[in-house]
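#lab-general

N.A. 3:47 PM
ok so I finally got the sequence cleaned up, no stray characters, all 180 residues accounted for. can someone with queue access submit it? mine expired

B.Y. 3:52 PM
send it over

N.A. 3:53 PM
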Amino acid sequence: MGYPPWHMWGTSQTLNLSAAATLQPPSPVTQQLARVSYARPETWRFIFWAQILQSSIAGAGGGINVSFDLITGLGRSQVKIPAFVEFGFPIIGTPATDNVQKWTTLAKEPPRFSGDTAERMTELFVSQDIQCSARVTFFAASLTTAQIEIGCGFAPNVHVRPEWFGPPGKQFRAGENGGM
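B.Y. 4:20 PM
back already:
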């Protein structure tokens, strides 16, 4: 039977990070989190999260930034949306950031034209193919380590399964194939 189609619609990953004070800009760690191939256009909802599980901080200053990048495809076109959602965790010199979790089901839209000051949020987008990866950048004023969990999930805004409408006695009864 293989995996159900939504098996790749979201996941979480734990990353072990280390940073040292340096004059060079930090290199981000990139992790793919989701791959949706729905085979037809759909409107999608989403959730993104990040949580610092533990940290070892040798001095004040620095932080962790998480940027969730999307590639969405519809028909023969695709669009890359860098930093669709971003989280920032400042490091202030103590493990006070441990177990801090951030999550959202909204994304901030960019300005539509020069001088646009309206703040718009989106909670839905249209696509048939979705790829999501996270870029995690860790910077510190001194030697520091951290463990962070990042994750995302996607679901169709409306999900109708054909077996819900089968003949009497064959309708969906529970489980993914329980009605057939």
